[in-house]
Amino acid sequence: MKKRFLPFSMMPASWGLNGKSRLRAEAEYYMEGYELERAIAAIDADTDVQAEIAQLGVDLKYEKITEPEHNKKVASIQDEPWVDVVELGFDQDTPNMGFFELDWNDEFIVFLHSKGITGRSDEDAVNTWFNSVCATVLAQEKADQDYGLEENTKNGQSDVEYVRRNNKGKTSSTDE
Question: What is the pTM of this model?
């Protein structure tokens, strides 16, 4: 907060302003940086949902949250199912022994339940889903007989997707 001697309402520039224009000018009078950007994001939004999403964008810009946290929160605000691979690892001594660490939102669990995928716990439901995905991938790979390494298939699509990470951990996909 900027320290001001006069309240905003006593400034001639504030006289005659109303609505979003007044709120914006007042925010600019009292705030700066991160705090100002969050306030402006809320003021410029037409709905509470848009305001929350815009403020999360500011949080991401200022690195208050990570991109996966941002994506999860946005999906939750929009009542959309979301799941992400947090970590993929393997045993140094036995490299074919590995693990996936997943993160998901409550809407993903509701989605799974709506599709008949349940368990004793949320983790069990996600595990059942993930095992099913893995089984489907294995079945597709066996059908391909190339284990997914075809550069060009009959329909012109590639089975291989190349992903590059920049120095901030963001990815971009390109088919090469």
Answer: 0.71
Residues 27-77 have pLDDT tens digits of: 999 999 999 999 999 999 999 999 999 999 999 999 999 999 999 999 999
Q: Please, which residues bridge with residue 164 across strands?
A: 172
Which residues have C-beta within 8 Å of that of residue 33, sequence separation ≥ 6? none
| Residue 70, domain member (yes or no) | no
In a domain, 14, yes or no: yes
Q: Are residues 125 and 165 in the same domain?
A: no
- 73's enclosing H/E stretch is helix 67-77
- Domain holding 113, by residue range, is 79-145
In a domain, 16, yes or no: yes
Distance (Å, rounded) from C-alpha 63 to C-alpha 151?
A: 37
